[in-house]
Amino acid sequence: MSGHRVSRRRLADVAFVVAVGAIVMSAAAFDADTTAVDYVLIAVSSAALAGYREAPRAVLAVSTLSGSAYVLHAHPGLASALPVFGAVHTAARAGHRGAAAAASAVFLAAYLPTGPTTHDVVERTALLTGWFLCAVITGMADRNWQAYLRQTEQRALEAERTREEAALRRAGEERLRIARELHDSLTHSISIVKLQAGVAVHLARKRGEEVPPALLAIQDASSEAMRELRSTLEVLRSDEPTGTPALLVERACAAGLAADLKVTGEVSPMPPTLDRAVYRIVQEALTNAARHAGPAKVQVQLAYEADGLTITVTDDGTADPSRPPTPGVGLTGMRERVTALAGTLHAGPRAEGGFEVRARLPLGEAG
Question: Is residue 164 a contact partner of residue 117, using CB atoms and an 8 Å limit?
């Protein structure tokens, strides 16, 4: 897109040079005394305007000297001032007001003796003085307007950044509020259920009685609920990763899951948002495998490439392609996180059995 803008600007500059040169050349063509040297001076003075964006002072010097030499040699009309007029305007627009005023004075001094009569000299010089004064003023006004636009854009970007920071702060406060509510409302109740179930199991075993399966299920479910609640509270209290994918795999192995990590490609530092997404995707995929895959082997693979990172978590568990699972909160959140980073996600049973999570995240500008 930027290349197209540069091409359009260059075409506009060339069109401007051609228009100015054509006007001055046409005016010179009606003068029978115009020579080849005059046409060369006109062409140089006009063609120099093509570089006003890169070197406005050099353009001003070339146009002024060529234009002054032309009027001293040919004594043309007012149209001869157009290239110098354009150079003065662009120089003032670039902030070189002193140079623009000096160039105007040089050209007017060269034009002063070209009139056939004193009246013509005064009239034409006064008119050109007004032109050049207008060129300087409009150049300064255009410069001030461009500066105002840049300041307005900067303020808009700053306001957008401030809104984003405020939104993140409010989101963090809301997470903390939810964490407090969950802790106050659920932790105590689940702890009581777990404690009572444990006491009942202990007393039954102490008396030599058979422990009811329902009581054991309640004990296990309450313990699992406590672990899940602690994990949820940790996520709510801090949205930052607490480790790396390698540490997640290590924890999964310590918990009894047969997991393995494979990294390919050149590992490079990633932005915090992308790093956090990788951690959460691996974390959610391992959690789902531990819950639903059964006694399965899990393979975690991170493939780094020049333009992207592919995260693949597969297991050889009990997932069946004929009975695809209904996406829960975890998979939905994973998909939203990947979509926010302009990535793609596939999560579903494999044809050969088991489950696969494959996320593709772009790196660089795309990410």
Answer: no
